[in-house]
Amino acid sequence: MFKRLSGFLLACLAVITAHAVQTETVLYRQGDTVLEGYVAWPDKANRNSPAVIIVHDWTGVGDYVKGRARQLAELGYVAFAADIYGKGVRPASGPDARAVSSQFGGNRPLYRARMQAALDWLQARPEVDRSRIAAMGYCFGGMGALELARSGAPIVGAITFHGSLSSPTPEDARNIKGKVLVLHGALDPAVNAEQVRGFQQEMNNAGVDYQFIAYSGAVHAFTLPTAGNDISKGSAYNANADRRSFAAMRTFLDEVFQ
What we know:
Layout (H helix, E strand, L loop, with lengths): L1 H16 L3 E10 L2 E10 L6 E7 L7 H12 L3 E5 L11 H12 L2 H16 L4 E11 L1 H11 L6 E5 L17 E7 L7 H14 L3 E6 L23 H18 L2
Parallel strand pairs: 3-4, 3-5, 5-6, 6-7, 7-8
Antiparallel strand pairs: 1-2, 2-4
Helix pairs in contact: 4-5
């Protein structure tokens, strides 16, 4: 009884302390391409507010990443769900998503340019503290957070949730200015042991301050409820890994934004 009551009180406290949030769909550009992002911010945001770029998975900007943006805004951050694909490009099937996402996985300079456009837009927001910006992403988006860091952009942290860790130019890790957090499914077939070893060697060689957390029993897409629960498919939701990785993200952001 006491445990249930304590849990209820903690839940009430979380609701009380959550920030009221405003949201807006915004258009911006990278070169000639029109991009459509989504920004969420706390009502009481001021010029000293830390900010986070959030990058979508391979389906593009949708309800999931918008929900994550609102979660971060409730924690007190300005959260910008960046659009990598372009306005109206929202793949409706796995094959379509693979085709679109591969255009960026195979062209890292283009991916970095789209990430830089998001950073430029966010830095121009009057309530954002330009010295306290981080980037994070899910699956395909995790690659984007790492690529922005590898580009030498002035971000204080990069977080990847079950994202690709590969890099065609591992020497670029020397450009990383902030800290890195990798949240990985220990059984993820899409990011295998060889890729993990290569990433860790890349970070170690460059002297990057990074953390690597692997969640037992978790495969690819472990934060996505729409992935289902059949781990034999290689992608599945894992409630424990979702909860633990979100907590790890919060601790990391507290550290890099202090």
